[in-house]
Write a structure and sequence with these properties.
Two copies of one chain form a homodimer. By secondary structure, chain A is of the alpha+beta class. Chain A has eleven helices and 15 strands. In chain A, strands 1, 2, 3, 4, 5, 6, 7 and 9 form an eight-stranded mixed beta sheet that branches. In chain A, a hairpin with an 8-residue loop joins strand 11 and strand 12. The relative contact order of chain A is 0.13.
Chain lengths: 407, 407
């Protein structure tokens, strides 16, 4: 996991004492100058206090966010009015420590639900983190936002052409409760490119829809999910003002690539995950149908335990496709499996042809399912709809982590 | 598990050799006279061959079904045209062995997907089973349809009043892949009451909707799910001809009670289940919203692992309600837990009041979650919508069974 740098941004992580045991639990990301910003939030009705705070903030200050403060160890969710005040206090503490005017700090929290957020550790930790801010501080910031994550998640991409020297990068945390609808994951993305709030928002929505919203660990969605992007414009380019700007597509592509890298890291680090599984659906009646079918497979506990057990159980895959709600004609459905190490794939093995099993070699299928990465390719044979989602297996470790976890 | 008897019906189970190891795998249920019948089938697009056969059969012969033949060990699903012929052959073999005219036998299969159904064991086993048919043969029939089930599932209820001496009873198999939408479960219900196909169908749909469709083990739905009810009229009552007959409601209620008993047995026998969990939602904006919220909790892997771990993690319950799609105002949500042994409950403990945790005693909550049966009661505080669903926990055994299972 290599570190990242994004011109004009500094970051830091410290152990503020919110988590027990002296683990890092507070991160800051600060820009040298105010940023344009865009954010995507959880759709959970029990949105956490920081989400409520940030939603209001973004309606007023999407053109001047300058800092992000993130704590792990406490989600500040289901905490009522006191929780809302705590989120506002956390922002104010950060703005004061950084000598920013009010309404410049974005707030994120992750951790236990329903426990009041203790402000004393935040009052102590934020100035400590502020004193440590460095351009190379992203890795320690990424470590400070981890909960059940086992490694920090960082990615970046460089732009070329008209935006040469432009950089897009960021960090994320994930692990449990990850689901296509943005479950318990936090991500802070940043760029030195100058771009107005509106096209930045469009780029972020596209990137999230093609990355974080297509991953699944266990199908649960959380109260705190947030993806934020900050653009500080220190590249000095003439700002991208709308989505028709020819520089917009490559910028959006870079943001998507970074988001997808982070999303894949979240899947690889899924609680108890031993396999990285790509479910690709083609030939669907529509893209929406393709997504329905792919998500049904990616979220099926029976498919996920089969991936864990190394059992090339194509029947469970077909059954999931069959109840997904996607339009399916069984006689047109083809299915292939392929396996390999990260980034490498062996030849695809067709196991279903026209809805019934081929005369495939079981040993070959078992060999594919023994690989750390498995591709499941489903052709519904009906139309042009296609998609790709990423998931992991479900094994004993998932049960152990989640049966034991709480305070 | 006590045996059942239903006047005018005989049943039997034998080891036909479809399963390896000489386990019982073929069951017959036969009425002395033709029956009116109703059935509910899987909605999976990959409906198995017997489901396709039975759907066509029911369009023509819902007033004269006389036998059901069921095999375990092979689902006859994803088997193409040969599978359809095998299902028809299985019906014909049964009709011949019982000297019935064509179109009287209903067919069910459960087991491995995608393997051709071997007809030789069925040709041998059906006459053997026919020779063993007895009024007290339900228990051995129920044993012969088990797959990963650990006990046979039987229930019956007696009618009173105008239908005195009427009996409703039946058997089911369930275990893995159980989900509100009728997943991989088979049930054969039978009654000696005389009732026309139309009100019988209405009674069955109501009963299934209030029993089998409200249980969840892992959220997967299968290719073979079928619930059949046969009414042979040997009670000699003037037939119930429509749903406005005053005898209809008590009949429907008895059918529902039997279905619910069987459904609860399926949950108790869920793969690896150690807890029986009732999720009750009241105060929802509509019954549909109540069902959305209850199912989200019942299907959440995070809630289910918390039940397994004995962790009274109300935050996960609220998070599931929050992403269920039900209309939710967090400040109006109340949550209680209660626990006990089968049929007994201790006092309910309120853990959430108006969306935030109460000052409840954690030890008391842990004590509740240590019980074999747990009630989760959610009041959304919005309206009159309510529902109840039943589920089990998700533990190591679920992973073991499903990571290892196939042929």
């Amino acid at each position: 996991m290599s570190n990242i740098r994004i011109p004009g941004f500094r970051a830091a992580g410290v152990a503020a004492g919110i988590k027990a045991g002296g683990h890092p639990d507070l991160a800051l990301v600060v820009s040298d100058v105010p940023c344009t910003a865009a954010a995507v939030f959880t759709q959970n009705a029990f949105a956490a206090a920081p989400v409520l705070y940030d939603r209001a903030l973004m309606r007023q200050a999407a053109d001047r966010i300058q800092a992000v403060v993130i704590n792990a160890g406490n989600a500040n969710a289901c905490t009522g009015e006191p929780g809302l005040r705590a989120a506002a206090d956390m922002a104010a503490i950060t703005e004061e420590a950084l000598s920013l005017t009010s309404g410049r700090a974005f707030v994120m929290s992750t951790g236990v639900i329903g426990v009041p957020l203790p402000l004393d550790p935040i009052r102590q930790g934020v100035p400590q983190a502020a004193a440590r801010l460095r351009e190379e501080g992203w890795e320690e910031a990424a470590r400070a936002i981890m909960t059940t994550d086992t490694f920090p998640k960082l990615a970046s991409a460089s732009l070329t052409g008209a935006l040469a020297s432009g950089v897009v990068g960021g960090m994320a945390k994930g692990a449990g409760m990850i689901h296509p609808n943005m479950a318990t994951m936090l991500a802070v993305l940043a760029t030195n490119v100058a771009i107005a709030p509106e096209p930045l928002d469009a780029a972020l929505r596209y990137a999230v829809d093609h990355s974080f919203n297509r991953i699944s660990v266990d199908g649960d969605t959380s109260t705190n999910d947030t993806v934020l992007v900050l653009a500080n414009g220190t590249l000095g380019n003439d700002p991208i003002r709308d989505v028709n700007d020819p520089r917009f597509p490559p910028f959006r592509e870079a943001l998507t690539r970074v988001s997808r890298e982070l999303a894949h890291m979240i899947v690889r680090d899924g609680e108890g995950a031993t396999k990285f599984v790509t479910v690709r659906v083609v030939g669907a009646a529509s893209d929406m149908d393709a997504l329905r079918a792919a998500k049904a497979v990616a979220n099926s506990p029976l498919c996920k335990t089969a991936f864990f057990g190394g059992d090339p159980n194509w029947g469970r895959v077909l059954a999931a496709v069959g109840y997904s709600g996607a339009h399916v004609d069984p006689r047109r459905v083809n299915l292939w499996f392929a396996g390999g190490k990260e980034g490498q794939r062996g030849p695809a093995l067709q196991v279903v042809d026209g809805g019934t099993p081929t005369d495939y070699d079981e040993a070959e299928a078992v060999h594919i399912f023994a690989q750390p990465e498995i591709d499941v390719l489903i052709d519904l044979g009906l139309g042009e709809g296609s998609t790709e989602v990423w998931t992991c297996d479900l094994g004993y470790e998932y049960v152990r982590i989640n049966a034991e976890y709480r305070t």
